[in-house]
Amino acid sequence: MDAVNTTTNTTSSSAMTDPLEFYGTQVASRLLLGTAQYPSPAILTEAIRASGTEIVTVSLRRESGAAKSGEKLAGQSFWSLIRDLGVKVLPNTAGCKTVKEAVTTAEMARELFGTPWVKLEVIGEDDTLQPDVFGLVEAARILSRDGFQVFPYTTEDLVVAEKLVSAGCEVLMPWGAPIGSGRGLNNPYGLRSMRAHFPGIPLVVDAGVGVPSHAAAAMELGYDAVLLNTAVAKAGDPARMARAFARALEAGREAFLADPIDARDMAAPSTPVMGRAVLG
Amino acid sequence: MTPHTDLHDDTVTDAARGADNAMRVRIVGAGVAGLTCAHAFARRGARVTLVDRNAGSGRGCSWYAGGMLAPWCERESAEPIIVDLGLESQAYWREAVPDVPNEGSLVLAQPRDLPDLRRFARRTDHYEWLDGPAIAALEPDLDGRFDQGLFFASESHLEPRKALAALTRRLTDEFGVEMTFEAEGFAAEADDADVVVDCRGLAARDELTDLRGVKGEMLVLYSTEVSLKRPVRMLHPRIPVYIVPRGDGHFMIGATSIENDERGRVTGRSMLELLGAVYALHPAFGEAEIVEIGADVRPAFPDNLPRLRRRGKTIYVNGLYRHGFLAAPALARRAAELAFDGTHFPEVMDEDRREW
What we know:
By secondary structure, chain A is α/β, with parallel strands linked by helices. Chain A contains 10 helices and 10 strands. In chain A, helix 2 (about 40-50) links the parallel strand 3 (about 30-35) and strand 4. Chain B is about 30% helix and about 25% strand. Classes of the chains: A alpha/beta, B alpha/beta. The interface between A and B is medium-sized, with 22 and 24 residues.
């Protein structure tokens, strides 16, 4: 499988000097991609290759069916297709609304994909798919204690984030905007505060990203990575959009590392205007 | 598009049909793929036998199909080849079975999902934008409920179970196709066939290892308070739903699309989603009677496109995904031409090994 090697050269070289780690695992690509809603698995595969992503999320709640113990779960063929992509799998608990559901789904995911990683989603509200942060903290505590490495989908609330960290989370994934809305970063101030508050914890903007400029903006804020799904899956040409996101992330990260100038109210000419020679 | 004039050519001479030197074709699977293949081979003069493990024809996932002949709408998420196959198949059905209304399709969205309607419009063509009064002119019961919609005037729909029953009758009465039910297809007597056409759907996964199942759930409602002339698609970012009028107050509502191969089991969440969408279309559906719920598994290849494959004397027709009625007749015509004329169809064939 050459899924990972299609990353552009610049990304791989910057990754060597600018590594990103999730629970001790180093990755070069700062794009995490969801696997739902693509026109076909073949197009999903193309998008993953084009993006150079090394981590994909997979949902299990609805796909697993109702197998009795000892029987195989019903979603095997899609999951084995994902496993064959040669990228790391971050199973998620998408669609779970209670702590119990999320914990059960995480346990199933660990067995199925043989990874302690889990993207923890506990949905609190149907219209915005906003996380239920109370259930999220509780589920994170249970799972961390049980040896899971939890990637919590949360809001930009600092107090909730503190509690997630004390529950054992070593990654935080605040939303940019509601899932699938494509609105970008609704609260740049909140996201900036979060970055300042947790300088040493990998932060991933998860959900709400619509176009590559949103992803670049997240990187310019100093975020470590972006997780998205709909923006690529529902694009007219998913593979091309995936490539566009990879480039935007690279540009945004480079910009952050290059220490951008601060915005100011008055013009600041790049060449002096006073005392200029008058010609003619 | 390839010409398909022979689709409409039903001049099968008795001599050809009964002749000792006629091609002997055994078709395995009596769903929409198997029945349309039986028709395509029989009208070319083959002696066709058909076998299915169920008690009658059309009892696999064809039984739960929506029956929308909507090549232009499907373009929203499908490759261009589906449009070509769909146009050919639409013409086939209108000629091959009775009751294929040509009322077009309507695509609607709740006001907050209008971005999805605009996206649908960008990804398709052969439609016109409608405003509220124009929607009400087509479907009076939707008066005042929607301000914008898309109308695909040239599309059709059919009732899958009636259509397959009608085709089954034609095959036995007109073409003398011999059908055996509640039997496995690969008995020893298959050996005397010149060509075996494998139309088993997901059951063919033993031979076609890249097939996977995509589960779909549906329900049928009965209401005399609402009437619709044509299929309506309700767009939603997560839960797109269609409703197809079946006549006599019956409406088929479908369909979920879940990446697993679990047959039969219908979940509460899926019914909530389907019913929620149809309730949003018209509140009178809240008082409709639930006549049937059902679920089955669509056979699909990784690119969700249908295929013909030939291995030795077996031709596989499979991977019709959510496009069974929309693609089967066009594939069947190609399967027959492959067998009779050796015509190769690269747009749907990725394997042709005559010496297997």
